[in-house]
Fold:
Amino acid sequence: MESEKFNWKKGIFHDSSSNFVSTSNPKKGEKIHIYIQMLKNSPITQIFFSFFQDGEEINIEMQKLPKSSLERNNYSSNLKVYSTKIELKGNELKYRFRILTNQEHFWYSGLGLTRITPPSEYCFTIIADALIPSWVTKTVFYQIFPDRFCNGNPSIDVKNNEISRGNEKSVHCEWNDIPGEYGKNYTSLHFYGGDLAGIKEKISYLQDLGINAIYLNPIFKANSNHRYDTIDYYRIDPHIGSNEEFAQLVQELHNQGIQIILDAVINHTGDKHPWFNRNGDPNKGGAYTSPNDPHRCFYRFYNEDPESFDAWKNYKLLPRLNYNSDELKDQIYRKSDSILKYWMQTPYNIDGWRFDCANMVGKYDSLGKRINVWEEIRTQLKKVNPNSFIIGESFYDGTELVNHHKLDAITNYCGFYSPLIRWLTQNDGIQALSNKEFRCFSFSYYFSLSDMITQMKIYRNKLPFQFQLIQINLLDSHDVPRLFSAIGKNESIMKMAVCFLFTYIGIPMIYYGDENGMEGISDPANRQPMIWEKARWNSNLRQFYKKMIFLRKEYSELQIGSFFNFQFDTNNSSENEDSYSEILAFARFSKSRCLIIILQKKEVKKQIQIPLWQLRYDSGVIKPLLDLINQQEINQSFKLNTKFSQGIAIFHAENIYPCYIGEINN
Structure:
């Protein structure tokens, strides 16, 4: 490869994976080797490892590896690699690289190669002694909204008029009834009867799909179908089962190699919770009934008026909890029988929690207070199970919630879902309940492939690589439109998005029924009951999901490998129709193997050139991995290995639409 004819700046690469750090999850005091690679003929004269110690920057000149060392460490002869050895003296090592040529000075950080000095939040970061659950990188999560998944025990269904809320009464719905319009002929008191028995009945279905972890929306006693208005944290809602049934379900899931996490709603309770007891029997106490009630400190009241309480988005059915109260902290997570510990211990032994409204918990801006509870919650839960997985919900920049002192992961709306949906649909894609109204999937604006790549890069690189690997990526959920509907039931685009979900860095999570082509834009349409009649399934889409799940679990590169985005232009146009033909190409790789993924949003006849030289490849073949599992639906022209030379792989775009995965071999 004559690398001098290429832009050497695009061939520099480092991340904190095991490809470039000798120990990816090191111990404090351990000495580790750190590497950075570039093209062999790049004009770099010196590289300095620049890190911070005691608040001061220290620069160490890195040494170029000799040829023998390159071979020993599985690096290509087309590269030159610099290394240094560093002792982890603290719990966190933040670093970047100074790169010098005879004429210029650059920085290399999570922002890539820049002349500007990168902010510290974009430094590469290595965490020592990080309690990262070992099982998570191998998982494919499946989200289940319990009332809508499967009715295994109709005898415990909610009956008509059994539950009341003002003038609203509960409605028992038949499984195939289509939910009406929210607020008109449908409310959160419409129940379909999904339960724990139904989930247990469908374990074989999950296994056939390839699922090995599930996340359940709330299952504790409540007065709504979504159950985010908790009444009793220690009791499974009797309309979906019993505590004993839940313990048996967890045991059976574990026996089948499936982990389970539950939804922890600790930002607020329901207004009928005994701690609060709004409009209930005053003789039973509760914060609402008396300023002297022992649970009064669990909530915030702005004055003596009992209606002056702080509520989630001022929605009075959901009074917010006050984490200025030590008594509340004891009850939620400190005591040995606290709510969060209770379900992690025998006989339940759940594998972790997904925290609802994690971005809000402990934040009271109207009172000028922010109480950090996550460090304490993490410490308490990791004592119970160091291998537990702790996730927080956040629609916004949730990176502040993730580190070795706080949460393991967030629902990656800002770092994956939002930029992907905006690129695919040119729409916002977010609907969130705010002051009793939904922001609908309606307004349109231009959002390019470059915009998507940039947003993902920014949010990805705000986190240590160790934590990038375990963020929860999703195409939709119970809070946003189902993607299949949002893209107008375009099966090709759906497959492309699914391919991206399973090949991007992070953990894929499937919303129940997406694998079968379920539809729905606004709540409750996006929460329709699971379709169990096979005749109504989109079998092509389902098979594609199964193939992508197989690949994800089969190839460690898709679980823990480096992520490299190839830099190339598919066209020079901007805001016009051709922008929809933008093509994304990236690699996931280890020292011994490299996978190439190509995603295309629109079918066009175009020749594209993938610059494999940026990852040091000069010639070889690309073996299509989908053929390994008898892929018949797409990529027909890639039955044979695709040869490439001079660092460029040439593809005909119409033959890879909508996606392609191959293994690069020299």
